[in-house]
Amino acid sequence: MALPKDELVERIYKMVEAAQGKKQLKAKDIEKAVLKEYPDQPRNDIKFAIKELIDSGRCVYTYFGGSYIELPHEEGAAKKF
Amino acid sequence: MHKTPMLDHLESGPWPSFVKDLKRMAAQKSEVNDLLGQLERSYREKITHWKHGGIVGVLGYGSGIIGRYSDLPEEFPGLEHFHTMRINHPSAWFYSTQALRELCDIWDKHGSGVLNLHGSTGDIIFLGCRTEALEPCFADLTAKGWDIGGSGSAMRSPSCCVGPARCEWACYDTLEACYQVTQEFQFDLHRPSYPYKFKYKFSGCPNDCVAAVARADLSVIGVWKDDIRIDQSAVEAYAAGEIKPRGGGAHVDKLDIQADVVDLCPTHCMSWDGRKLTIDNKNCNHCMHCINLMPQALRPGTETGATILLGSHAPILEGAQMSWVIVPFMEMEPPFDEVKDLGYRITEWWAEHGKNRERVGELIMRLGMRAFLEAVELPPVPQSVIFPRSNPFFFWKQSDFDAEAKGRKYYTKEGFDVD
Fold it and tell me: Fewer CB near the last or first residue (10 Å), C or N of chain A?
């Protein structure tokens, strides 16, 4: 069964939150994880749920050799040592 | 002003130097003075003092901003933040002077004023923006109709040659195709969701002026499928020296049709009897050599479209790789749905199976062309080679120089008997 839009957004947010600091998730990793749990979920729903998290600022895209989705955090390179 | 004795050397050569430009700008922008100072120090110490950021951007986008920080912010405070912004260029880099002034005004207001026209992907590159200035700069850009380009694991800003705007050889409207594809893939351009970068490049003819065959993951190269158009009287005029080859840009003033054109045809599909040039068009591989030399005598055919190639990339993880032909001929008419649809099918398969930082050409190498063709529902074509070239350069051999020394005009085979 597919998740309603709001629940899908929260499910993805929880996934990103749980992975924070442990594993960097790409958009495709999130899509695959959602589809494993909810095989009927349309791919486009997942795409736009990620967009909603990014547009609201709850998640951000990061680039560390590849592009990932993470919770906002301080830029390591910006720190003064 | 920072002392820059090593950089000063670069101004002493015969060519224009970026150092001169930066010094002029440093008089108005302190961060440019710091940029010169840090560069001088890097030259002296042979080490970079840049740190790569990974988070800065504008709200909603995951592409187009590349974080840059100095590791010497106390010494060079203007470089504490010095981010790069990629601005999506217009098709074939056509600007009005008004548009260029608007861009420069925005960049003078929000950033260092240093820009690069253009980066290798094609974007306009703004170099040197503080984090807090990114959003206001982006707002001013969008208010004038500009948008940020691609970076990271995303669709990169598509680029194209000048096409029919300035070139009579364009086999389709490269500018419109580039624009349409850019609009179609906005989501993928701004929101990285691929394993790695993906580049579209559009060339209007096989001369491939944007080097799509060597640089684009998906190359759309104009081609014709009927016969090369010949004006025999113009061929005779070239042979008589009445028309200069290549519009006066060739290495000779008078064309030797047999030696300069026919003998250099890679498929040997041409013949010249001293009065008439004959082409066996079925065996022509559209290399453009003859057309380039005699543009007033030879022209591409009239049944035009594009060849679609896939998989090229510069050396990053693996070595360089050029493209495979995957569709020998595709009609190229607006709104270019066929090429867009093919792009979606390719990126879907690649996103599903690609490893992090694996380009689509590398994935085909890993999983095989058969798996790719089955997945995107394309038939195998005889024009597709087993392995594309991995080296875009040509290396002369000693025998070539020996042949030249013995007076041979051209030599294309190693060990060619020059006696």
Answer: C
Per the CB < 8 A criterion, the answer to whether B57 and B150 are in contact is no
Nearest CA in chain A to B349: A28
Q: Which residues contact B394 (CB under 8 A, 6 or more apart)?
A: none
Q: What structural domains and CATH numbers belong to chain B?
A: 5-143 (3.30.70.2500), 159-222+306-376 (3.30.413.10), 229-302 (3.30.70.20)
pLDDT digits (tens, 9 = 90+) for B107-134: 999 999 999 999 888 999 999 999 999 9
Tokens 């390591």 sit on residue:
A76
Buried b (16+ CB within 10 A) or exposed e, B296-331: ebbbbbeebbbbbbbbbbeeeeeebbbbbbbbbbbe
A72 touches chain B (CB under 8 A): yes
Q: How many CB atoms lie within 10 A of CB B291?
A: 20
ipTM of the complex, rounded to two decimals: 0.94
The 3-state DSSP class for residue B263 equals helix
Q: Which SS3 state, helix, strand or coil, does residue B241 take?
A: coil
Lookup result for tokens 């840059």: B68
CA torsion sign for B187, B188, B190, B195 is positive
Q: Which CATH architecture has domain A5-70?
A: Orthogonal Bundle (1.10)
